[in-house]
Amino acid sequence: MLIVLSGGGTAGHINPAxxxxxxxxxxxxxxxxxxxxxxxxxxxxPEAGLEFKGFEAGGFNRNHPLTLPxxxxxxxxxxxxxxxxxxxxxxxxxxxxxxxxxxxxxxxxEQMNIPVVVHEQNSVMGxxxxxxxxxxxxxxxxxxHAGQALADKTxxxxxxxxxxxxxxxxxxxxxxxxxxxxxxxxxxxxTGGSLGARHINSALAHLxxxxxxxxxxxxxxxxxxxxxxxxKEALSLTPDEQARWQLLGYTDHMGDAMAAADLIVSRAGxxxxxxxxxxxxxxxLVPFPYxxxxxxxxxxxxxxxxxxAKMIADADVESEQFAQTLCELIESAExxxxxxxxxxxxxxxxxxxxxxxxxxxxxxx
Length: 365
Description:
By secondary structure, this protein is an alpha/beta fold. The protein folds into two domains: 2-158, Glycogen Phosphorylase B (Rossmann fold, 3-Layer(aba) Sandwich); 166-348, Rossmann fold (3-Layer(aba) Sandwich), CATH 3.40.50.2000. Helices cover 46% and strands 16% of the residues. It has helices spanning 11-26, 41-47, 67-89, 102-111, 127-133, 165-169, 172-179, 198-206, 208-212, 228-235, 239-242, 254-260, 270-278, 295-305, 320-331, 333-344, 351-364; strands spanning 2-6, 30-35, 51-54, 93-96, 116-120, 138-141, 156-158, 186-191, 217-222, 245-248, 263-266, 283-285, 309-311. The protein has a seven-stranded parallel beta sheet, sandwiched between helices. Helix 1 packs across helix 17, helix 3 crosses helix 4 (102-111) and helix 7 crosses helix 12 (254-260).
């Protein structure tokens, strides 16, 4: 059996696809990946050991209608190229994870009667997935709300968002060793995603004295590469303070960081939430307010309703409410334990297996 995965543009589309690939390969399935040649998938996919095929794709600017013909021509050309590729490799199914590249890849599959599965990570379906979901054989969702516009609910499946094995494989011991955190310390992890979050960084810098007053609190603060210098300057940590407040622009060891942490302050992107859920990590979420259709707020709200997280609006991140909520989480082991148990009920660890079951079932029909 050969399955082609497709997704591009952001790590939020690519990482769930790679998580699915790990499960499929463990079951003896061959996997190839179709993405854009200039996207980050062109680097991440070969690094994961998968064969990668590039197809040009791009969106259009709604404020500039003249960009539409160029986008459509690119999609048409890539659809033809994908058909030629499928003729060579004969896939049994195609799985789209979002991003414009999924459109020509999935359209080529449809034209050749190759079944298509769509996976949506967020609480609001992206444009490419919404287009493909109408004709897909199965539509797999992290949040049920994302499928509300789907006419045929019988093909809708709530699988959760797959997480790569490296997130599960990290242990508290290995994580604490990597970041030099004492075993009996309380660790706060702060991250705004791969690009950082200026507002979160600023708010935490203002809370420096409050946080360092907790003598047993250690902080690993991932600022984003572009924010590192400005956060260093704002914090002005002494050598003694640096021993307890580590500043990193980026880390390739997020699995270790989450395994070592006792709580996290984070944005509410789909991949971040899936990893937080997989580690059952108590979270204070600050959704990015400019995400499409405010989907990060909806993502976060689902975690809050499950009892696994607290949420503060970005506009309130420098307020007394944010400081008070964070301090309560630091001080209350009972509250953290309750949130951890709630997060464990979400069964994110099983998402890749559930999605693999559906994909293989569709491919075998």
